[in-house]
Amino acid sequence: MFDYIVVGAGFAGSVMAERLAGTGKKILVVDKRGHVGGNAYDHYDEAGILVHKYGPHIFHTNSPEVYDYLSRFTEWRPYEHKVLGSVDGKLVPIPINLNTVNLLYGWHLDSEEMEEFLRSRAEPIIPVRTSADVVLSRVGRELYEKFFKNYTKKQWDLDPSELDASVTARVPVRTNQDDRYFTDAFQVMPLHGYTAMFEKMLSHENIETRLNTDYKDIIGQVPYKNIVYTGPVDSYFDYRYGKLPYRSLEFKHETLDQQVFQPTGTVNYPNEQAFTRITEFKYLTGQAHEKTSIVYEFSRAEGDPYYPIPTTANAEIYRKYQALADNTPNVFFTGRLATYKYYNMDQVVAQALTLFKKIQHL
């Protein structure tokens, strides 16, 4: 008899399994894939380079609680992610900062002049409802079209005017020379990789893990009391209100016979290319190797669900599923897919820790 079946061995499921196991509960973790770690799974490729199978996962958080919790299962290496964008034949910093504008236009603005430039280009929009509104009201049409419009169309297959403001609100605009992609208090990568961290998290004697297993195939055969579900919420309810749309990704991994491929961890391609970005993993992992491995990312409509698509219509559908979830006894929904939210990794961990505190005494 298991106290909990945990569906999914990514961040949400692994945190819940580890926390509940620590209270003496017997846990069965099942995952359809052949590995733990969900989309954060990493492994050594044929050349011996540590790569992220499902695209780059860069850890950052402002939460001491999340950082301290994960620190039980990994040592860290400091890493501040930097991104360049290929725009007008130049590689310029993203998010847009003082250097971006100066490099793009051949100017020598200071911070005050940058503020003035942005003010002169901004198109005030009240109220701000869409992703387009966010960017246009901050940087104006020209930078919107160079950096955001086509990238968003590639990423989501929607015009920014069709997407919720939350998507581009995640991307800051800076008037200084800070070229870090994130400004969180904790910016680190697991020293030995994500997979090693998840394996340690799930190594508790009260946890049994079954991979290559669909929970629907075993649910009638295994005695259990409760379920923690981290998969797509619409799938759990057999698409009763229709399918919730997700964007998927396709990855093209390559190993090159050279030490370095590009000048920074990730280069975004907002415009002409079919792919959205290229990431070079050695920047992220700190590994020394005579070769280098990179990944091209292509946004797709079909495939594994990665990103909930934040539109008003989709939010309406999700609300119906949320009502079902809230009224399903002994089943607890957590994670990006189960709550249809575009969460970062640390937000998923925080959500799972919060859920654990709520149910630990049940």
From TrEMBL:
Boundaries of every UDP-galactopyranose mutase C-terminal domain copy: 146-342
UniProt keyword annotations, A-Z: FAD, Flavoprotein, Isomerase
InterPro entries the record matches: UDP-GALP_mutase (IPR004379), UDP-GalPyranose_mutase_C (IPR015899)
SUPFAM superfamilies per the UniProt record, alphabetical: FAD-linked reductases, C-terminal domain, Nucleotide-binding domain
Domain of life: Bacteria
PANTHER family noted in UniProt: UDP-GALACTOPYRANOSE MUTASE (PTHR21197:SF0)
Family assignment from sequence similarity: Belongs to the UDP-galactopyranose/dTDP-fucopyranose mutase family.
Protein name: UDP-galactopyranose mutase
